[in-house]
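Observation: inputs received (chain + 2-oxoadipic acid).
Thought: call the complex predictor directly.
Action: predict_structure
Action Input:
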Amino acid sequence: MSEWTIDTTVGELLRREHGREDGAKITEGWPDLDLGTAYRIQDALLDRKTSGGQTVVGVKLGLTSRAKQRRMGVDVPLTGWLTDAMTLAPGEPVAVGEFIHPRVEPEIVFIMGARLSGPGVTAEQAMSAVRSVHAGFEVIDSRYRDFDFALPDVVADNASACRFVLSGHAVPPEGLDLAEEPCRLSVDGDTVDTATGAAVLGHPANALALAANGLAERGLAIEPGWIILTGGLTDAVPLHPGSTVSAAFGSLGALSLTGT
Ligand code: OOG
Ligand code: MG
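Observation:
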């Protein structure tokens, strides 16, 4: 018998989020927590948020690059939910003290023009359902101590979702070569990492197709207007008060995020 249930896990993860407190992995007390149950916890967590008035605005992918997989010690991509409460306006600062241990990662972001419903969605089909492409940052904040988790833990914790921001510059997908799209990440003016769009499963469209096909297994589809974060291109950097993280892309432009 596990000491946890879906309900008590949801309650504990919400308590940690609201109390800005990290804690042990759920799999410590629930060693045989499987992926299917972990996604049911994630969906139940979303239900609690939508009952509280939040609305779903899209989906995030996580662990789609080797840089992220290596750092987190988990090599399987996953998805989580984005809600309106996670949205930051371009240039809006992030109060570090309102979170547990926020980290920032640069991502290529899609806004969907058409519904995308799996199974069997290809990268080409996925890309043709995209309305616009944006440079973005995700702010992740694990509810686990030191971001120490196994795959079912991080799935249950909504893929460490916390906040995200898109640059105001919308680029039409036609003519973009997203595998070659460069990204230079810097902190307070010093370059800390570089990557191209190929870091994300060879091409960010593969991440979008993966999300559509994964959601289809749960009877869900990607809806028009949804925002899709395709996953960190580089390792994430901790956000500190007074420090500014910047990402310079090529065709997608640049954006910055400052901690306070
Ligand atoms: C899990 C979420 C990973 C990404 O872009 O790879 C993620 C984590 O690193 O805590 O959002
Ligand atoms: Mg991310």
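Thought: report the result.
Final Answer: Residues 6-258 form a domain with the Fumarylacetoacetate hydrolase; domain 2 fold (CATH 3.90.850.10). Helices lie at 6-19, 26-29, 35-51, 66-72, 123-128, 151-156, 204-216.
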